Design the sequence.
């Protein structure tokens, strides 16, 4: 039996009310502007959303963008965790990585996009752009999580000759996971925007959400532009829910393993 907590119900109700308020504001603004070209109404936009949802080519575009989002995020996450462990153990590695982290943080995204387009194909440029932007965030978060482990506990584990695998599993991973999860949620949403923006600038021949945005912008189809934006927001929301589900599964597996060891 699935139990829904009061906090979950409260969050759902609050979210639903906020969504209704946003739709009401949107409707009022579209009425005041009185121009479907400048500010299309919700009815027209959701009509276009429905058209996209029954168009097979849209799903091909969605899948193409989704693959780039997942690949860039997973590669950035794995690289961030691996290099964070290395930096935490080897100070020279941290010093060597620091200039690259600073440059990646400070470099304007537009410049990164155009440089990547000069050096790489338009197919992989969006993934490289997204990686370069989100990697420093995930790396810093992972390094902070690893260093959040109590040094005395690590020394005690070393004194009692606890296996390195157990030290990582029982000390480092819980601290890393709790710190990295919250940043991963916001970073994943940022990654969606980065990939779609880079696709739009790259203007690839193959179908993807960024190319669709560029096409409807060139054709001055504002309602379709709003519709793709709504669908991109829904994609970001779905990925965030997926990440939350992964967290719940990991926590349940951890709890079961602890219970089995205690029996």
Sequence:
């Amino acid at each position: 039996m699935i139990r829904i907590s009061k906090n979950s119900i409260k969050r759902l109700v609050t979210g639903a009310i906020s969504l209704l308020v946003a739709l009401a504001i949107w409707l009022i603004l579209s009425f005041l502007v009185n121009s479907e070209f400048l500010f299309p109404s919700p009815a027209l936009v959701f009509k276009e959303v429905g058209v996209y949802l029954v168009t097979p080519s849209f799903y091909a575009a969605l899948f193409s963008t989704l693959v780039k989002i997942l690949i860039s995020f997973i590669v950035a996450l794995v690289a961030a965790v691996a290099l964070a462990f290395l930096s935490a153990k080897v100070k020279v590695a941290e010093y060597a990585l620091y200039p690259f982290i600073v440059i990646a943080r400070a470099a304007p995204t537009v410049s990164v996009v155009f440089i990547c387009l000069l050096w790489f194909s338009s197919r992989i440029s969006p993934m490289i752009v997204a990686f370069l932007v989100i990697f420093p965030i995930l790396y810093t978060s992972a390094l902070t999580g690893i260093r959040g482990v109590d040094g005395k506990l690590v020394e005690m584990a070393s004194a009692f000759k606890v296996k390195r695998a157990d030290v990582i599993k029982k000390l480092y991973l819980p601290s890393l996971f709790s710190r990295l999860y919250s940043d991963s949620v916001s970073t994943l949403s940022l990654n969606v925007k980065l990939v779609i923006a880079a696709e739009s600038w790259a203007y690839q021949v193959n179908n993807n959400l960024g190319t669709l945005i560029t096409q409807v912008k060139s054709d001055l189809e504002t309602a379709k532009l709003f519709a793709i934006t709504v669908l991109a927001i829904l994609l970001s929301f779905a990925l965030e829910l997926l990440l939350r589900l992964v967290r719940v599964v990991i926590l349940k597996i951890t709890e079961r393993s602890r219970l089995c060891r205690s029996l």
Q: What stands out?
A: The radius of gyration is 23 Å. The mean pLDDT is 82. DSSP finds ten helices and no strands in the chain.
